[in-house]
Design brief:
CATH architecture of the largest domain: 3-Layer(aba) Sandwich
Low-confidence stretches: none
Oligomer: single chain
CATH superfamily of the largest domain: HAD superfamily/HAD-like
Order of helices and strands: EHHHHHEHEHHEHEHE
Helix content: 40-55%
Radius of gyration: 17 Å
Length: 214
């Protein structure tokens, strides 16, 4: 699969950029700003939750109504200084993109991070020149949990789904890509450890570092 793919599609946060830890810390910060007392145990729980799940957790445990768009808008404002300062790359990510380019594989970014923030992060990480196309879900409409989104993305890239591989750290997006017929490589770290078994089940390959790929 990795040897024959014509397009490699990469998520950004938690996949190319080592930024998911910073995103997840914002969950607890956001609710403290609402006057909620967050215990150390709850903070650990929130470190493992995406925005939608964090909103559901807040309603169940804190009685706080927080919809995902509100959480995302606030989180983006809080994350912008960190992106502007520069986020570290995931191990081996830059070199792997360079190797793919030398092979003639299309290098595509597709992230759910809003476009303005994504471009700040990519520029500061010197990744723009290592990508052939950059897409965000707010540019395209839809979400990565929907197989139809990936079908449309592959059409834009100009490749069949079976000739594309999605590199992703979020389980819902892995499932969306798999259902659309793409190959899937899961990127794991502490922030998706609770999903490790499910990630193993849905992915063709699971890695902790791009240095594992040649």
């Amino acid at each position: 699969m990795l040897k024959t793919m014509k397009a490699a599609i990469f998520d950004m946060d938690g996949t190319l950029l080592d930024s998911m830890g910073a995103w997840r810390k914002l969950n607890a910060s956001f609710f403290r700003e609402q006057g909620v007392t967050v215990t150390p145990e709850q903070e650990r729980d929130l470190m493992n939750l995406s925005g939608v799940m964090a909103a559901q957790y807040a309603k169940a445990h804190f009685g706080v109504e927080a919809d995902f768009p509100m959480l995302l808008e606030r989180a983006c404002r809080m994350m912008e200084p960190a992106y502007s300062a520069g986020m570290a790359l995931k191990p081996g990510a830059g070199d792997y993109l360079t190797r793919l380019g030398a092979r003639g594989v299309k290098r595509v970014l597709c992230t759910a991070t809003p476009s303005r923030l994504a471009l700040i992060g990519l520029n500061r990480a010197d990744l723009v020149g290592k990508l052939d196309r950059i897409y965000t879900t707010d540019m395209l409409g839809g979400g990565k949990g929907n197989p139809a989104f990936f079908a449309r993305l592959c059409a834009l890239i100009g490749e069949k789904p079976e000739d594309c591989v999605m590199f992703e750290d979020a389980l819902y997006a892995m499932r969306g890509a798999r259902a659309a017929g793409l190959g899937v490589v899961g990127i794991t770290d502490a922030t998706n450890a609770s999903d490790r078994e499910a990630i193993q089940a849905v992915c063709d390959r699971v890695i902790d570092s791009f240095d594992e790929l040649y």
